[in-house]
Amino acid sequence: MNYYFIDYENVHADGFIGIENLGEDDIICVMYTEQSKTFSLELVEKIVRQKAKLESYKAGTGAKNALDFQLSSYLGYMIAKGEKTEDRFYIVSKDTGFNRLVDFWVERGVTVKRIVNLEHNKKVLEMVSTLEQEKPKGKSKSKVSDSNKATKEELLQYLSEEEYSDKILEIFNSYKTKVAINNGLTKEFRDSQKSSAIYKKLKSLLKEKQKS
Q1: What is d(CA 176, CA 143) in angstroms, rounded to the nearest whole number?
Q2: 166-174 and 178-189 helices, crossing angle to 10°
Q3: Which tens digits make up the pLDDT trace of 57-69?
Q4: Cβ atoms within 10 A of the Cβ of 151, count?
Q5: For residue 98, what pLDDT is reported?
Q6: What is the CATH number of domain 2-115?
Q7: What values do phi and psi take at 7, rounded to 5?
Q8: Which residues on adjacent β-strands are paired with residue 111?
Q9: What is the DSSP letter of 207?
Q10: Within 10 Å of residue 176's Cβ, how many Cβ atoms?
Q11: What is the pLDDT of residue 212?
Q12: Averaged pLDDT, 132-157
């Protein structure tokens, strides 16, 4: 599933360029404000002809960058709510301030990019987001040294057979930092209590393996 979060206050109708390339597996979330709520008839006609699902949200105003904060919050909500690791999330905006948000999620294994319109798959697209993150195994080989990795037997010294899974071992060996490992567990189990309990049991091993 592809999710497109359109900063309409920033890109206006230009953000919808390429909408004809979207399909049933695409969801467009338009974020707008009182000052940017006008849609031309031509744009409306173009939107209704498409198969992509459309959602719209009016952002509350009264503070600087209010729409940006609400778009970022909704993006995080949809990422946490998602069930498929192959889901892709696109922020449609010319605002380079979103690049830091993109980096944050890419570091946590989520495919997030910033694009200037919906023609992200065309060569003429102005792509300014970071590259898609490599798969965890590839990342662990290049960034995590063998001395920082654990074995199944080592994890079983801290976890019971019922608690252990190969996925936990993969997460442990894929990241160098405690924060990244904790985030990986949270994303895997989607249960904060369970992931927190496992993380606490592994604290001593994290220290032993010099996870920063």
Answers
A1: 7
A2: 150
A3: 888 776 778 899 9
A4: 11
A5: 93
A6: 3.40.50
A7: -85, 80
A8: 88
A9: H
A10: 17
A11: 66
A12: 68
CA distances from 206 to 91, 148, 181 (A): 35, 9, 9
Residues near 114 by Cβ (< 8 Å), separated by ≥ 6? Answer: 90, 91, 92, 93, 96, 98, 99, 102, 128, 129
Contact 70, 60 (CB under 8 A): yes
Look at 182 and 92; give whichever has higher pLDDT: 92
pTM above 0.70, yes or no: no
Integer angstrom CA distances of residue 140 from 81, 137, 165: 26, 5, 18
Instruction: For residues 79 and 91, give the distance between their C-alpha atoms in angstroms, rounded to a whole number.
Output: 13
User: What is the enclosing helix (H) or strand (E) of 196?
Assistant: helix 192-201
In the chain, residues under CATH classification 3.40.50 are: 2-115
- How does DSSP assign 12-56, residue by residue? GGGGGTTGGG--TTEEEEEEE-GGG----HHHHHHHHTS-SEEEE
210 residue type, one letter: Q
Per-residue pLDDT, 71 = 93
